[in-house]
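ok so I'm stuck.
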Amino acid sequence: MRRYSAGMHWATGLLLFLATVIGMEGFAYVAHRWVMHGVGWFLHASHHRPRHGNWEWNDLYAVIFAVPSFALIFGGLQLGWWPGFVWIGYGIAAYGAIYFGFHDVIVHKRLNHRYLPKSAYMKRIIQAHRLHHVVETKRGTVSFGFLWAPKPEDLKAELKRRDRAGVRAPVERSETPAA
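replied:
not stuck anymore, here's the structure
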């Protein structure tokens, strides 16, 4: 196996890395909007329903999106591919880690924590993602990006304009206190 050689200046690599992390938000929007809410709904639908247990079919997307990252890093480090592929692979992996932290840990609380958002930015992306989830159907959803989100007021207006098509019915609460 061929070892990675520093055939690229670190500053160029860092620029590739940052451009990839930023570009991944565009990729995530497209994949979420037209793949996950399109032909890939058979996996993503599980994410718009209450989860029972630790896993859902939608989690397979993490594996699917990790493959290009792994391939680029491996090819760049071990197969003698262009060194820039390593930085791009790292950028994809970094976006995945950021996404996991925001989406799975902070928004969906798949790991226990006591974090409460204080910044306007964090409140905005969390509220936008929650508004995305009020629609439980394949169509009619709003806000497909994750690290950038439209204003919640705009998303609410869009849901209202669509006559709240696909919006989940409110859950009835019992009048008796839980034992």
